[in-house]
Amino acid sequence: MTENLPGLKEDVVTNIEEEVTEPPMFKVLLHNDNFTTKEFVVKILVSVFSKSLDEATQLMWAVHKNGVGVCGVYPFEIAETKVNIVTATARENGFPLQSTMEPE
Fold first, then answer.
1. Is 100 helix (H, G, I), strand (E, B) or coil?
2. Are 90 and 47 in contact (CB under 8 A)?
3. Tens-place pLDDT, residues 43-86
4. Which CATH architecture has domain 34-95?
5. Cα–Cα dist 23/51, whole Å
6. What confidence score (pLDDT) does residue 21 get?
7. Number of DSSP helices (H) and strands (E) in the chain, helices first
8. How far apart are CA 92 and CA 88, in angstroms?
């Protein structure tokens, strides 16, 4: 292997053991309020979280009934981006819809 590489010693062996760990995951939560329309919540769930219309409708009702619901679980940066998109889109449309994230 190394016979054609000048200056490289064959007796040098580099053994690198790297432990590969999964990034910490975060739940993105949607919170119920008395002002955001159900239709807007469904649109958010479809457009931001890639839910089907049926999944989005079921999750919207769960958030409405329970006060909060998990939209998805993502690595930190993705979760943070989704929370920011939900908040910005809600404000642009005049809704107080809140989205937060917490460690899984």
1. strand
2. no
3. 999 999 999 999 999 999 999 999 999 999 999 999 999 999 99
4. 2-Layer Sandwich (3.30)
5. 23
6. 87
7. 3, 3
8. 6
d(CA 12, CA 52): 56
Q: Domains of the chain: which residue ranges?
A: 34-95
Q: Report the C-alpha gap between 46 and 78 in whole angstroms.
A: 16
Strand 25-31 relative to strand 68-75, pairing: antiparallel
Q: What is the dihedral of CA 31, 35, 40, 44, to 10 degrees?
A: -20
Whole-angstrom distance, CA of residue 94 vs CA of residue 35: 9
Write the DSSP symbol of residue 49.
T
Residue type, position 74, single letter: Y
Identify the pLDDT of residue 4: 61
List of E strands, the chain: 25-31, 68-75, 98-103
Q: What is the DSSP letter of 93?
A: T
